[in-house]
Amino acid sequence: MTTPDLTVTVGGLTLANPVLAASGTFGYGLDLDDLCPPERLGGIVTKGLSPEPRAGAPMPRIAETACGMLNAIGLENIGVEAFCREKLPVLRERGVTVIVNVFGASSGQYRDVIERCEAAGGIAGYELNVSCPNVSSGGMEFGHDPALLEELTRLCRDATVKPLWVKLSPNAPDLIATAQAAAAGGADALSLINTLRGMAIDPYRRRPELARTFGGLSGPAVMPVALRMVYEVHRALPGVPLVGLGGIETGLDAVRFMLAGASAVQVGTATFRRPDAMLRIIEELEAYCRETKTSRVASLTGALEEI
Ligand SMILES: Cc1cc2nc3c(=O)[nH]c(=O)nc-3n(C[C@H](O)[C@H](O)[C@H](O)COP(=O)(O)O)c2cc1C
């Protein structure tokens, strides 16, 4: 068999392979350069960027859990200005496909980040992290209120012609309603899932392990939930491209997400355990295609057989 074709198209973007680094777990793409050169990936999703730099939450902000981890980083980031000045030129020169993950405390802040990136140039697309409280509407998370989410997506849609992805929260009360709202607002694709809200307790100190008490659960523990959500959204909105993530550690995990309906996948927590995890996943995906005589990896999307 000839070499399998690993290219995929997702939400207006063609990627050399379907494996992207997930936001917040690969810095700004260059921290692990010697172990995982970013240009070998389908793309990178940056750490969430806000208009101004943020220091993030107090320590401890990470706790290990069974088959996963909890984090409450508090959206620490260098701010969009420093990203465009210090990181973006290197990524651009290296030919890395860069998706900027965007967040803000108001819809205006989201738009601000996009506008400043547009002015800098060289960005392939945007992913909105909607798991943040909207300060101007009383702290309700954007991703929990379909009307708010549609309005935010539309505002960002108007700021760019580049691919716009919306990353859904698994904690929202109605997954399908939020997916529909993001699509109605003009999203080109939906990424799912972000972390699941949880907590860990130290029995001897009799305290929560995280300084902020609650954190986001990620890693293999969340994969069945993430697969179910990708599958449900794909069935409810078959025309909307999806990017699947949550606990992916192997090429077969990536295949599972694609069969459920994802056009591409992201890998987060696995990189903390093995910095070269994504390169291995790409190799394993290719091996799976050879083994199963799949000439185009893109043909796996939504190819799940019903029982
Ligand atoms: C330490 C850490 C930081 C994260 N920061 C962000 C972020 O800034 N923006 C975002 O949309 N998701 C963020 N996430 C969520 C991941 O991108 C991903 O959705 C989640 O971890 C599930 O994938 P995984 O199980 O492969 O890690 C973060 C996750 C971790 C573990």
Give an overview in words:
The chain is of the alpha/beta class and 307 residues long. It has one domain (8-300): Alpha-Beta Barrel (TIM Barrel), CATH 3.20.20.70. 31% of the residues lie in helices and 19% in strands. Strand 15, helix 6 and strand 16 (264-267) form a beta-alpha-beta unit. The longest helix has 15 residues, at 80-94. The mean pLDDT is 96. The chain binds flavin mononucleotide (FMN). Flavin mononucleotide binds at residues 22-25, 47-48, 71, 73, 75, 101, 129, 167, 194-195, 218-219, 222, 245-248, 267-270. Residues 22-25, 47-48, 71, 73, 75, 101, 129, 167, 194-195, 218-219, 222, 245-248, 267-270 line the site of flavin mononucleotide (FMN).
